[in-house]
Every structure is written in structure tokens, then in C-alpha cells.
Specification:
Helix 1 packs antiparallel against helix 2. The protein is flat, with a radius of gyration of 33 Å. The protein is of the alpha+beta class and 517 residues long. It has four domains: 93 residues, no CATH class; 101 residues, no CATH class; 83 residues, no CATH class; 119 residues, no CATH class.
Length: 517
């Protein structure tokens, strides 16, 4: 009811909207029992707002609580502000204020504006201080709970890099030190952790990439012309029926709009169009082609400028799904490019997202397109729960070889000397593990064979000033090397260090179904 009353007052010019672009005029926004009213700073608009409140009270029996209301002004004459406050009888407030969990601001988002986000993450971690959480548990809590606060803000703001750094520091400290967040040693780089598990990471995502993916989602809403007041406002204020992809950044624009325009090149790589009528789609500059804008594919020799006007739309050279033969005759080399175009005659042009199966946008696909990619680890495709139990011998050897191939740079080097056997050389060649010749004379040590049918574990540990390392080797009675392992940068007591290589070797033997060790 109140919305209808305000619209009627605006149509009679009793309330003059400060945001009026063509047919779009914004006078108020409603959410639950909250109302935001927008009007030009004039006594006339203030009286119109009072009349709307009075009418609403007469029709509904509800009265606006002026004590819980505030009026905000832009820069202007102080005498006019005083007259408006006296007319409305509402106290003056100051920005920023918190609305729907986000700050309402008129300038660029600062680090101080994001303080509530940092505080909210700290408050969420505090109740976990009395719980015994494993490191794997803390990783899952980071992914499922702590990482859920940022996307809500990123959907509305491009967060500053300093804030993203602070949030990621909280994540790192929580994973490695626990809820206390005290300073601790981080043995693995954050860039490595923030990669998919198939690439050797823990499945977390860099907030910088997620921030940019959120900006790409806003561009997707703009080009799809989603039914949104914000999208309509953006088109009326900045696009104005022009080609969104080649518009120069307006000299006067908000900080949020500037971040959107600066993100267009990233979106171009993942966008193409299904051509129907071809109206409003620039033949040369828009990313309607699956391989990107044609101007970027065509040889930069100026041939097309002489053959066809630079400002040419697709519908001018496409009739009922058939390309203009005159254009093809003038530009023979363009024929191969146009063969890949997606054309459906007598239909509306539709933008599709190339990185998803159904052509719709998703934050995951956008993030995957802009993140840094690494090579997949060799054994990532094997089933997660298959720990070599119940598999045949050949399958065990394949998986074991793949695992050792992945970690060979950290593995114990086989020593090449006079006692190196042919089986050692064959094993080294099979897993691509380099041999090296010892530069220092080594003390001769006789290896005692285990009983037939048994496997022997030889292991050791070394302690340096700041960290320790362990390693071990599994061999059969006939000296065949079954597996080897090593681990460095370990921090533990001497007593634990003596036991660690034995436990590690026993676990490896168990995974290989070795019951006589």
C-alpha cells in the first residue's frame, strides 16, 4: 500500500526523484518492514513524503515510527537541510550505516568499512577454542563455514586487497595453529593449499580469484539483462543502448562501476552468442564467436576495413541463417572463421557461457577459468577409498609407481656404488628415480636378509637444528625393493622422532597388504 501511495505522489511531482534516467525513476526501496525513500533535497519533496505517511496511516491504521527513522543528505545548503528536517521532524543521520549486513556508503569501500566482516569471522572461530579439532577438521571448517562470509560481501562490493589478505591470514593461522590464531610455522605455501585436490592442494580457493569471479557474475547479469533494478539502472546510466564491450570507461563513474568495466576482458574469453536475428551484435568487436571477437582473429592488415564498414552488425550480413555471399567474396579468409559460428535463424540472440555444459554462468566455472592451473598429480584419478586393498598385483604396482613418480623429488636417492644390484637399477628406471654416485666413502654395512616370505623395513631419522627428516625402505628376502618413503621439515621431540619412521613404514606396509614385516 505504501509503495502505491509513493508512486502516485511521484507521478504528481509531489516527490521528485534524484535518480531519474529516461523511463527509470527510483523513489523508494522496500525490504520487510524497512523503507528507503529517495528525493531531491527540497521542502516540496519533504512535504510530499509527509503527505504519504499521513495517507498511509489513514488507510492502514499504522503509523511510521519517526524515532527509528533518519534523514541523510548529500552536499548542499545547510539552511535547506534545516528546513527539510523541521518539515519531516526526523533526526539527521550520517553515512555509512549498516543495512542488510552491508555498509551503505557513497565512496570507495575502505578497510575500515570492512571491519565488521573481519570481526564476524573472529566471532565465529571463538566458540571452537574448547574443541579438539584435527588439522583436517580445521580445513573442512574453513571451506564450509569461514569461507562462506566473503561471497555475500563480494556479491555487492569489490573488496580491497588488504582485506582479502587479512581474511586469508585468519584462515592460515586457524588451519596451522588452531582457534587461538597464534603465530605458527606454515610448512606449506598458501598458493599450494589453494589448489584443487587433484592438483596437490587442499581444495581451498584464493579470495582474490573469487572476488573477480563475483565481478564477472555482475557482467553476466548485465549482458543477459536480468530482471533486476540494479541491472536496469546500470543500462540506463552507463550502457544506454551502446555496445557494452567497447564502451570507453566514463570519466564520471562510481568505483563499483569502474571495477565492472575493467573486468570485461576476462569475461570475453568465456562468452559467445547463439546468433538468431543478429540485431545489435557488432560483427567485429563483440565476443559472439566461440573463438572470441573476429577482429582479434582476423589478420591485422586492414583488409576487412576496405571490404566492409567497421561498424557492421551481424544481421546486416546474415539473412535466414546464410552469410552474405558478397562479404564472403570480398573476404575469402573470413569463411573459415564463420564456419564455427553458432547460428539459429529466426530466433533471438542469446549469450552463453562456454565453460559450463548448459551455457549458464556459475561462480565455480568463472573461478576455474581465472585461477592459476597446475599439472594434475598422477594418482589423483584413482578412487579415493581404494588403498590398494583387494586389488591385483599389477594394479598395485601401477598405483605405487604413480605415487612414487609424484614424490620422487622428495624421495631418498638410491646410491650408485659397487653393491648396487640389477634389481635396484631396474626399479630406479621404472619409477624414473635418479641414481647418484657417492662422492664420499661410505662405511661398509652388511644387509641381513629377512626370512623367506617376510619383508624387511630399514628406516632412520635425522635431526637438524630447526627440523627433522625421516626415511625408510621395504625389501623382500631376495633384495627386491617394494617401496620407499621420506619426509622432511618435521617438528617433534627426539622420542617421537625415533618412533615416527617405524610407524610410517608399518603403515606403508599395511597399505601394500604386507602381513609379515
Amino acid at each position: 500500500m505504501l509503495s502505491v501511495i509513493i508512486d502516485e505522489a511521484a507521478s504528481l511531482n509531489k516527490i521528485i526523484s534524484p535518480f531519474s534516467k529516461g523511463s527509470l525513476s527510483i523513489t523508494h526501496l522496500l525490504f520487510a518492514d524497512d523503507v528507503l525513500l529517495f528525493a531531491k533535497a527540497s521542502v516540496l519533496s519533504a512535504k510530499g513524503i509527509n503527505d504519504c505517511f499521513t495517507r498511509f496511516m489513514q488507510c492502514s491504521g499504522l503509523e511510521v515510527n519517526l524515532n527509528k527513522s533518519e534523514v541523510f543528505f548529500s552536499e548542499g545548503d545547510s539552511r535547506c537541510k534545516g528546513a527539510i528536517k523541521d518539515t519531516l521532524n526526523i533526526p539527521q543521520g550520517s553515512l555509512p550505516i549498516k543495512y542488510l549486513g552491508l555498509p551503505l556508503i557513497t565512496s570507495r569501500l575502505s578497510a575500515a568499512d570492512c571491519a565488521p566482516l573481519i570481526s564476524k569471522i573472529h566471532r565465529r572461530i571463538a566458540p571452537w577454542s574448547n574443541r579438539l579439532l584435527s588439522r583436517a577438521g580445521r580445513v573442512e571448517l574453513t571451506k564450509s563455514i569461514l569461507n562462506s562470509f566473503h561471497p555475500y560481501w563480494a556479491a555487492s562490493f569489490h573488496l580491497p586487497a588488504s582485506i582479502l589478505g587479512k581474511i586469508e591470514k585468519i584462515f592460515r593461522d586457524f588451519i596451522w595453529a588452531g582457534p587461538s590464531l597464534h603465530k605458527s610455522y606454515h610448512p606449506i605455501a598458501w598458493d599450494t593449499i589453494c589448489t584443487p585436490k587433484a592438483e596437490g592442494g587442499l581444495g581451498l580457493r584464493k579470495l582474490k580469484d573469487l572476488n573477480k569471479a563475483a565481478d564477472m557474475k555482475q557482467i553476466w547479469s548485465i549482458i543477459k539483462k536480468k530482471n533486476s533494478l540494479w541491472v536496469s539502472w546500470f543500462h540506463h546510466k552507463y550502457v544506454r543502448k551502446r555496445n557494452f564491450w567497447i564502451i570507453k570507461n566514463p570519466s564520471k563513474m562510481s568505483w563499483g562501476a569502474r571495477t565492472i568495466f575493467n573486468c570485461r576482458e576476462e569475461v570475453k574469453k568465456s562468452i559467445c552468442y547463439i546468433i538468431g536475428e543478429g540485431k545489435g551484435i557488432d560483427l567485429w568487436t563483440q565476443p559472439w564467436h566461440p573463438d572470441g571477437p573476429i577482429v582479434e582473429q582476423y589478420p591485422p592488415d586492414g583488409e576487412y576495413l576496405n571490404a566492409i564498414r567497421p561498424k557492421t552488425y551481424v544481421h546486416q550480413v546474415l539473412q535466414e541463417g546464410i552469410w552474405d555471399p558478397i562479404m564472403l567474396q570480398r573476404l575469402p579468409s573470413i569463411n573459415l572463421i564463420l564456419e564455427k559460428a553458432l547460428v539459429i535463424s529466426s530466433a533471438e540472440d542469446e549469450a552463453i557461457w562456454k565453460d559450463t555444459i548448459d551455457g549458464s554462468f556459475s561462480l565455480k566455472s568463472a573461478w576455474n577459468g581465472i585461477r592459476e592451473h597446475h599439472s594434475k598429480i598422477a594418482w589423483a584419478s584413482s578412487k579415493r577409498n581404494n588403498r590398494l586393498q583387494g586389488a591385483d598385483k599389477s594394479h598395485k604396482q601401477v598405483i605405487l609407481r604413480n605415487i612414487l613418480h609424484t614424490i620422487r623429488s622428495r624421495c631418498i636417492f638410491l646410491r650408485l656404488d659397487s653393491q648396487t644390484g640389477s634389481r635396484d637399477l631396474a626399479f630406479s628406471k621404472a619409477i624414473d628415480l635418479p641414481l647418484f654416485r657417492s662422492q664420499k666413502p661410505t662405511k661398509s654395512c652388511k644387509w641381513v636378509h629377512p626370512e623367506p616370505g617376510c619383508v624387511k623395513l630399514n628406516c632412520d631419522a635425522s635431526l637438524a637444528s630447526s627440523s627433522a627428516s625421516i626415511g625408510g625402505l621395504l625389501r623382500t628376502n631376495d633384495s627386491l625393493v617394494l617401496a620407499m618413503y621420506s619426509q622432511d621439515k618435521i617438528q617433534m621431540s627426539i622420542q617421537e622422532l625415533e618412533l615416527e619412521p617405524i610407524c610410517h613404514g608399518a603403515s606403508l606396509a599395511s597399505s601394500l597388504d604386507i602381513d609379515r614385516l
